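wait is this the right file?? whatever heres the structure
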């Protein structure tokens, strides 16, 4: 009776660790196209399709019919992390700045997503992360 419980407990712990790892985006390298900012990094994102057989890390910008924007991080053609626009922070002739949230690890450093900027026309933008 004791062994089945131990097996079940071990399996449960593995599943929980896996869920936490995948929800955090895991550890990924900083992409080649990042920019350093005063408090962290900025990653550009364009509205392009990511093919399922792609290799490496890619970032894209998408939106839905309700007007929400998403910045997605793909690793080897699989979506690993999605950051969703929340409320509008600032609107200018150049584009719109939205609030977002989420955590990701670039290497050993944890970062918090803080905002998404979408240029006028909605085809490109960036996401800002602060060290956390």
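ok assuming it is, sequence goes like this
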């Amino acid at each position: 009776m004791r062994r089945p419980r131990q097996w079940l407990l071990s399996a449960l712990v593995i599943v929980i660790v896996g869920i936490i790892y995948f929800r955090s985006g895991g550890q990924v390298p900083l992409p080649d196209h990042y920019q350093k900012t005063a408090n962290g990094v900025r990653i550009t994102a364009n509205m392009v399709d990511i093919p399922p057989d792609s290799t490496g890390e890619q970032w894209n910008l998408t939106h839905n019919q309700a007007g929400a924007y998403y910045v997605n991080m793909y690793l080897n053609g699989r979506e690993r992390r999605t950051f969703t626009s929340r409320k509008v922070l600032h609107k200018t002739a150049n584009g719109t700045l939205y609030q977002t949230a989420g955590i990701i690890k670039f290497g050993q450093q944890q970062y918090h997503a803080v905002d998404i900027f979408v240029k006028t026309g909605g085809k490109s933008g960036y996401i800002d992360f602060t060290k956390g």
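The mean pLDDT is 88. so i think its the right one actually
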